[in-house]
């Protein structure tokens, strides 16, 4: 933790503009030279209810939301009020304040809208304030906003107050507003911002706790992108110009970004009747020679299991996204979990294979989505990017130059008409597309042709088939075709090893290890930093390649440590299970730290978990489960 | 040279081009109506002027789904009920292709019913052939969505309590812009109808009566049939929606009374196809999207240039 960090939480009702305000504020902080990280919490409800976004801003790069926060802006849930009588429904109105007190750090700041919130409705509020040494600003943001503009602009008033307290130059915000707002609402917003800023300076004392953040300058221009942005842009730069889908939170975010951008460049987006159709459309487009994708979240992805197998058997390149949320079934639609890992790895019948990536943050998400396309088209195999609700809505600053890359529209192992002339054909003129004895393709890939190409017609099928594509149950052909399809994994593994998708942190010669995957990586990395600062000897391995599994790299990591804690957001230790299945040993070295209450880990929980389990050899509290070592270990 | 030079190629086309070489011999039972569909389709192709290399035939699963194993063209034998979503995306990706989808009544009206409704509604430019044999053939004779009420099978031992689906009416309500019924017992009518269907610019649905002598005992069940477009007893205008609807209702009632009516029931030449609509509103490129991947001069758009400003 750096000394000067602001973790700002803005809370209110869904529909109160929490998301847009926080994104803008995060951007302003980024522009002022800070590193930012956002964390979003929202209920499955359109209007009202308790929602918040946290922005952590620091001079140093930030990798997680941190533990708790030090600045609360509680707006009051405008949807909890009966608009006619101007009266509260119960004490819902005060929720954005009292629901957020537990995690507010000692010495933190509370700004609340006294025009909408009444602290007398909160039990022991004053005592708690005193106990925790909180500094409270009760400001009638609602009236302030109403006087100059409209009530919804109390967000802006809240940001103005924040600037004054945290000593942030409101210029940064003004500049952003000028960029983003239409003339009509710009003026009142600017006035509200200024008035709120001055009000604090004039009426409140200066001995507030120190939550000020310095401003600086980044070495190069930064952009603020979420995991969903990054995945969409990764697809775009991979040359994907076709998406088909059906909405489901949180996958909808990528689907929306792509749908809004693709038509502008002549790409095609299709919202269709269900997820089976969505994946089947992506297969159809890919078969016809366009880079295509689809995706969903748990329940919708379950429906895709059928077309997923079709893509594999027919060797049609396909990229799918799986944005996991807490399950089973409809589960908790807006809460993160990593419980769909096994679903994504093993769904679909038979010895069905796919390539699975689990990126950790927006930068990795962009990178690995590009790789997912590259592998899918080079090897004619489905590849899946699994991520979760946490990563999808998490914003980070990344240098703009990171995205400054050549697009990759290559269709991979596909022949041109010129090449088709020399390719093998059967007696009726059919291109022998599925050769297993092709000396030119040691990696098991037989290049395809695209409908419309002269001399290229062939039959693709979900049945087992001969080299020409004809359905066959011949045993020798079956074994040859299976072996060839499985052989692709050797080439893929070698390519992925070169890319180095796995993340390492901490001293190389550490005694202990912590392993994790996907979106928990940043949090674990921060925890590992703290553990080493506290005198422990720990290193981290964040695994991104779920299939084919990076056996050698993980083995080497586990060989080098005495014990290893496996951190993941699910109840059945799926990632640990995968590791043991793939490696077939090390069971006794591994213990699990699990969380599945709908909220991601915070670094302190991992520090605690490590100290309790590894250092003290004790039982982990709460969410821990014991794991039976793998057979033969 | 275009990357897809088979598309639009002008030359004499021989129907033998659509027949595979030695392998494979059809696995259909002797007397199966599916042979009639295959024959009609092979005869229709040269007249439509399409070559095997510019044709994509997508099928589902079932005896019917094996159609493209015995037909020489680009083919995608998909999975049960899913031929339509695969086919329509291929057409969007490359509108120059002649796209035909085919499957059984179980495949198309049962498991794939949802896709049927939506593909018709969107009016994709393609031809959809449903082999309607009123039975599940490949899984050995279970009751299908078009089996008559009271139909007994191993899985419906007491006789089906369900009314059969009305495929023509369903198609019209769903939005198909060309609807016809033909029968395998008359490949000549079938050929003409398939030609019309393929030349139609929009979703052309052909309910193709195919007898299944193995599981639906009465192999001659669609004989004699009546061509409503030729018959003096049935006078109606297929471009008139209300008249078409009335005619479909009559046909669907009579089939189960033993009178087989066939012909073109509905034709709407005015309605633009889905691809045209999408192009008009700017949701689809004028030139085939698939072409772009073979065009070395195409300048691929980049995130860095197009979208990053709003994130700064
Ligand atoms: C998801 C799925 N469910 C069931 C099956 C088994 N199945 C194969 S063919 C078929 C019935 C086909 O009947 P129909 O579509 O009428 O075609 P026909 O064989 O009569 O031509 C079924 C149920 C399957 N292959 N896939
Ligand atoms: S089972 Fe029926 S539909 Fe299938 S091939 Fe035999 S006759 Fe034809």
From TrEMBL, chain A:
Highest rank taxon of the organism: Archaea
EC number: 1.2.7.3
Annotated region (Disordered), positions in chain: 408-455
Residue ranges occupied by any Pyruvate/ketoisovalerate oxidoreductase catalytic domain in the UniProt entry: 15-198
GO molecular function: 2-oxoglutarate synthase activity
Domain Pyruvate:ferredoxin oxidoreductase core: start-end pairs: 510-583
GO biological process: organic acid metabolic process; sulfur compound biosynthetic process
Chemical reaction(s) catalysed: 2 oxidized [2Fe-2S]-[ferredoxin] + 2-oxoglutarate + CoA = succinyl-CoA + 2 reduced [2Fe-2S]-[ferredoxin] + CO2 + H(+)
InterPro entries: 2-oxoacid/accept_OxRdtase_asu (IPR022367), PFOR_II (IPR033412), Pyruvate:ferred/Flavod_OxRd (IPR050722), Pyrv/ketoisovalerate_OxRed_cat (IPR019752), Pyrv_Fd/Flavodoxin_OxRdtase_N (IPR002880), Pyrv_flavodox_OxRed_cen (IPR002869), THDP-binding (IPR029061), Transketo_C/PFOR_II (IPR009014)
Keywords (A to Z) from UniProt: Oxidoreductase
PANTHER family: 2-OXOGLUTARATE OXIDOREDUCTASE SUBUNIT KORA, PYRUVATE-FLAVODOXIN OXIDOREDUCTASE-RELATED
Name of the featured protein: 2-oxoglutarate synthase subunit KorA
From TrEMBL, chain B:
UniProt entry keywords in alphabetical sequence: Oxidoreductase
Membrane listed as a keyword: no
Domain Thiamine pyrophosphate enzyme TPP-binding intervals: 61-208
Names of required cofactors: [4Fe-4S] cluster
Recorded coiled-coil stretches: none
Annotated organism of origin: Salinirubrum litoreum
Record keyword Heme present: no
Stored PANTHER family: 2-OXOGLUTARATE OXIDOREDUCTASE SUBUNIT KORB (PTHR48084:SF4), 2-OXOGLUTARATE OXIDOREDUCTASE SUBUNIT KORB-RELATED (PTHR48084)
A single BP term in Gene Ontology: cellular respiration
SUPFAM superfamilies tied to this protein: Thiamin diphosphate-binding fold (THDP-binding) (SSF52518)
An example Gene Ontology molecular-function term: oxidoreductase activity, acting on the aldehyde or oxo group of donors, iron-sulfur protein as acceptor
Protein name: Thiamine pyrophosphate-dependent enzyme
One Pfam family, short name: TPP_enzyme_C
Region of interest called Disordered, as start-end residue ranges on this chain: 140-166
């Amino acid at each position: 933790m750096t000394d000067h960090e602001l973790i700002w939480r803005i809370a209110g009702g869904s529909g109160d503009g929490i998301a847009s305000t926080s994104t803008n504020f995060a951007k302003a902080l980024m522009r002022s030279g800070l590193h930012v990280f956002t964390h979003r919490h929202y209920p499955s409800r359109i209007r009202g209810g308790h929602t918040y976004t946290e922005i952590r801003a620091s001079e140093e790069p930030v990798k997680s939301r941190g533990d708790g926060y030090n600045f609360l802006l509680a707006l009051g849930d405008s949807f909890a009020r009966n608009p006619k009588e101007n009266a509260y429904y119960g004490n819902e109105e005060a929720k954005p304040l009292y629901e957020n007190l537990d995690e507010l750090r000692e010495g933190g700041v509370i700004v609340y809208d006294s025009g909408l919130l009444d602290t007398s409705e909160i039990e022991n509020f004053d005592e708690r304030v005193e106990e925790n040494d909180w500094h409270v600003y009760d400001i009638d943001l609602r009236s302030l906003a109403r006087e100059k503009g409209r009530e919804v602009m109390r967000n802006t008033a809240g940001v103005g107050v924040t600037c004054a307290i945290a000593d942030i130059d409101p210029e940064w915000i003004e500049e952003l507003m000028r960029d983003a707002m239409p003339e009509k609402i710009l003026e009142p917003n600017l006035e509200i911002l200024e008035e709120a800023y001055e009000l604090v300076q004039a009426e409140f004392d200066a001995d507030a706790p120190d939550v000020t953040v310095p401003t600086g300058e980044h070495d190069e221009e930064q952009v603020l992108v979420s995991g969903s942005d990054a995945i969409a842009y990764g697809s775009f730069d991979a040359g994907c110009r076709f998406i088909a889908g059906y909405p489901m939170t949180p996958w909808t975010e990528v689907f929306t970004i792509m749908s809004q951008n693709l038509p502008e460049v002549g790409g095609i987006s299709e919202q269709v009747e269900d997820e089976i159709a969505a994946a089947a459309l992506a297969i159809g487009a890919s078969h016809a020679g366009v880079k295509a994708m689809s995706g969903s979240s748990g329940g919708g992805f379950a429906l895709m299991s059928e077309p997923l197998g079709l893509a594999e058997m027919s060797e049609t390149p396909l990229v799918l996204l799986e944005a996991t949320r807490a399950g089973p079934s409809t589960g908790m639609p807006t809460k993160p979990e990593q419980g769909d890992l096994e679903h994504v790895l093993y769904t679909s019948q038979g010895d069905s294979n796919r390539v699975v990536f689990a990126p950790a943050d927006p930068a990795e998400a962009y990178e690995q989505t590009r790789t997912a396309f590259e592998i899918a088209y080079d090897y004619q195999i489905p590849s899946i990017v699994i991520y979760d609700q946490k990563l999808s809505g998490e914003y980070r600053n990344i240098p703009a130059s990171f995205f400054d890359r050549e697009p990759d529209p290559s269709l991979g192992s596909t022949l041109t008409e010129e090449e088709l002339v020399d390719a093998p054909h059967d007696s009726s003129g059919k291109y022998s597309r599925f050769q297993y004895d092709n000396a030119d393709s040691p990696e098991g890939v037989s290049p395809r042709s695209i409908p419309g190409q002269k001399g290229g017609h062939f039959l693709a099928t979900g049945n087992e088939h001969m080299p020409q594509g004809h359905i066959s149950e011949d045993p020798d052909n079956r074994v040859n075709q299976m072996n060839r399809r499985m052989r692709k994994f050797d080439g893929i593994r070698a390519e992925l090893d070169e890319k180095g998708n796995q993340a390492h942190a901490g001293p190389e010669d550490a005694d202990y290890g912590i392993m994790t995957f996907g979106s928990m990586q940043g949090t674990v990395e921060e925890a590992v930093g703290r553990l080493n600062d506290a005198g422990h000897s720990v290193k981290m391995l964040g695994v991104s390649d779920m299939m084919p599994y990076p056996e050698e790299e993980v083995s080497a990591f586990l060989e080098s440590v005495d014990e290893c804690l496996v951190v993941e957001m699910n109840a059945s230790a799926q990632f640990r299970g995968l590791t043991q299945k793939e490696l077939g040993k090390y069971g006794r070295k591994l213990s699990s730290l699990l969380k599945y209450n709908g909220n991601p880990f915070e670094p302190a929980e991992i520090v605690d978990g490590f100290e309790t389990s590894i250092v003290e050899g004790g039982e982990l509290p709460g969410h821990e489960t014991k794991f039976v070592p793998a057979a033969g270990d | 040279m275009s990357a897809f030079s088979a598309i639009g190629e002008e030359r004499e086309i021989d129907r033998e081009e659509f027949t595979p070489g030695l392998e494979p011999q059809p696995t259909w039972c002797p007397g199966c109506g599916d042979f009639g569909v295959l024959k009609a389709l092979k005869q229709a192709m040269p007249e439509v002027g399409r070559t095997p290399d510019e044709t994509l035939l997508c099928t589902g699963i079932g005896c019917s789904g094996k159609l493209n194993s015995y037909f020489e063209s680009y083919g995608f034998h998909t999975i049960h009920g899913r031929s339509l979503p695969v086919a329509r995306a291929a057409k969007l990706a490359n509108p120059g292709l002649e796209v035909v989808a085919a499957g059984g009544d179980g495949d198309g009206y049962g498991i794939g019913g949802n896709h049927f409704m939506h593909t018709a509604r969107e009016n994709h430019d393609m031809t959809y052939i449903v082999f309607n044999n009123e039975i599940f053939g490949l899984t050995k004779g279970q009751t299908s969505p078009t089996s008559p009420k009271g139909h007994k099978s191993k899985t419906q031992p007491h006789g089906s309590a369900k009314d059969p689906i009305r495929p023509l009416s369903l198609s019209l309500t769903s939005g198909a812009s060309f609807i016809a019924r033909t029968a395998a017992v008359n490949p000549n009518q079938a050929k003409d109808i398939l030609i019309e269907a393929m030349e139609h610019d929009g979703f052309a649905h052909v309910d193709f009566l195919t007898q299944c002598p193995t599981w639906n005992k009465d192999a001659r069940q669609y004989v004699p049939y009546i061509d409503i477009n030729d018959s003096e007893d049935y006078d109606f205008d297929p471009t008139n929606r209300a008249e078409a609807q009335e005619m479909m209702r009559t046909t669907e009632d009579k089939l189960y009374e033993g009178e087989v009516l066939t012909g073109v029931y509905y034709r709407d030449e005015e309605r633009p196809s889905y691809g045209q609509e999408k192009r008009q509103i700017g949701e689809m490129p004028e030139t085939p999207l698939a072409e772009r991947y073979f065009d070395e001069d195409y300048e691929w758009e980049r995130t860095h240039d197009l979208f990053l400003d709003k994130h700064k």
